[in-house]
Design goal:
Blueprint lengths: L14 H26 L4 H38 L3
Length: 85
């Protein structure tokens, strides 16, 4: 039976790129909300909801990325302690 290699977790980006991505996505979602609000006449509703949606989505993604990286590093450390490496 042939085993496939274990996939590597998503590597954590640098803080600068994560910050730029977070700010850019908030801006994009805010502008989409502004467009929807002007089209539907619901002034601040969609701007606020979509900006919060963007922030929450990024923090959830960062949490799972960090958890995956830490789990992988813990497995490597345990394998090295057992002498499996």
């Amino acid at each position: 039976m042939k085993f496939l290699p274990k996939p590597k977790p998503v590597v954590l980006d640098s803080g600068t790129s994560q910050g730029a991505e977070l700010a850019g996505s908030i801006l994009v979602f805010f502008l989409i909300g502004l467009g929807l609000d002007s089209w539907l006449g619901t002034t601040p509703l969609f701007m606020i909801v979509l900006a919060i949606f963007s922030v929450v989505g990024h923090f959830v993604r960062m949490y799972y990325s960090y958890s995956s990286a830490m789990l992988h590093l813990e497995e490597e450390r345990a394998a090295a302690a057992r002498g499996d490496k």
